[in-house]
Amino acid sequence: NNFISELSNYPAMSTPNGHTILFVMPSQKPTSRTYADFESLTEALEGVCKIYEEHLKELNPSSLSITYDISQLFDFVDELSDLACLIFNKEQRMYEPKDKEWIKEKIYSMLRKQAGK
User: Fold this and answer.
1) Per-residue pLDDT tens for 37-64?
2) pTM (predicted TM-score)
3) Which of 34, 65, 78, 83 is paired with 26 by a 20 to 30 Å CA distance?
């Protein structure tokens, strides 16, 4: 049983935007697991984008600028062995677990809002 399948057993609640802990497992190796904490969900979603941008920089060290579209970002996210987050809900006074698909939906919404500005 992986972390995401365990998280998906929890009931869905309204979307909080509090302190967020992002869990990333790039490969099947347990030693590849890492986490980062952010002040908000938005910062965590931007963090996922930054992880991908760093990956692209490693693949293209001589490039001065990096461009990508959302489908490439989502392919990268899908290739991660595991991605999940816990978001603090102030009203419930607890952390809510969210899985990879939920994170992708929120990244999509965030990038659409940014593109509309």
Assistant:
1) 999 999 999 999 999 999 999 999 998 8
2) 0.82
3) 65
Written as six digits, the tokens of 112 are 């659409």
| Confidence at residue 16, expressed as pLDDT on a 0 to 100 scale | 63
Cα-flanking dihedrals φ and ψ of residue 105, to 5°? -60, -45
Yes or no: say if 36 and 54 are a contact pair by the CB < 8 Å rule.
Answer: no
Please state, in angstroms and rounded to a whole number, the distance separating the CA atoms of residues 104 and 61.
27
Rg of the Cα atoms in the chain? 15
pLDDT tens for each residue of 18-44? 899 999 999 999 999 999 999 999 999
As to burial, measured by CB atoms within 10 angstroms (0-12 exposed, 13-18 middle, 19+ buried), residue 116 is exposed
Q: In what order do the strands lie in the sheet with 94-98?
A: 34-38, 20-25, 82-89, 94-98
Number of H helices, E strands in the chain: 4, 4
CA distances from 52 to 22, 25, 71 (A): 14, 13, 12
Amino acid at 27: S
